[in-house]
Amino acid sequence: MTLPDNRPFAIRTYSPDQLKEALKRMYLIRRFEEGAEQSYMRGLIHGTMHLSIGQEASAVASCMELTDADKITSTHRGHGHCIAKGADVARMFAEFFGKETGYCHGRGGSMHIADVKTGNLGANGIVGGGLPIAVGAALSAKRLGRDDVTLCFFGDGANNEGAFHEALNMAAIWKLPVVFICENNRYGMSTSVERSTAVALISERAAAYTMPGITVDGNDFSAIAEAVHDAIARARSGAGPSLIENLTYRWRGHSKSDRNRYRTKEEIEDWMARDPIIRFEAELIAHGVIDKAQATAIADAAASQVEQGIEFARTSAAPAITEVTRYVYSEA
To answer: What is the distance of C-alpha 235 from the center of its chain?
Structure first.
């Protein structure tokens, strides 16, 4: 009699190299956003930014099985999604710094990083703006007979936008290969999800569009990976879309101007104690994938890569004033 494999989904599904790479990307997201925050405070970056520190598991676990042919759409809090899809942090910093070497030649900034060649259709400054784009990408894949899927990241605030309902309805009617991933960090700007949303769980709204809906612990890497794995398999089979709700939390404010007056210090500290990176790292060590020294080396490598990325951005050339209107639209 064969005993059941009770190890977490990620441990029993992915290779050690894949799991180490996942941990590195989670550290890269954390260090990238800390580096961006410091650069802002030093006056190297202007404007504002929206950080996803505390939400790293949602981005990386969701993108574990994607190829460059698969697409993602993101939100205004999109740094983690870009790195999870394989973006180079040096080019991301260059975009932040408004330099010509950035992903959008410095024209997009923090909220509009995109890399179409690798399937990253871009972050988006409009709440819910990525939802119809994802449906369009999935419709394109179906009409062209391709088997690629689109992951659509959005926040809890977007689930009350009209675009959310229109997108889910169209995706369900046409059985499109798209996975809707709600990163419920509990606050749409300063309004709690309890004050803005009629259902207890956003995943309950899937029933209205006859698609599977599931809520998982958004700080549990393995739980997210398993839910997205099942949804991707359903999408590739032609059965249509799914809705996944990752319950997580952003440690920082909505943006740099946020004074956090709508939540308590105790609430923030409680969620910080559930750090998804420390939790995943401990799981890898407990199952013998890595030891503590290897985990430290992975964290250090991520920090070094971020430092190099900042220096690359700082020393890159700015766009010429005579060419500031180039790259605003795709050139034929």
So the answer is: 19
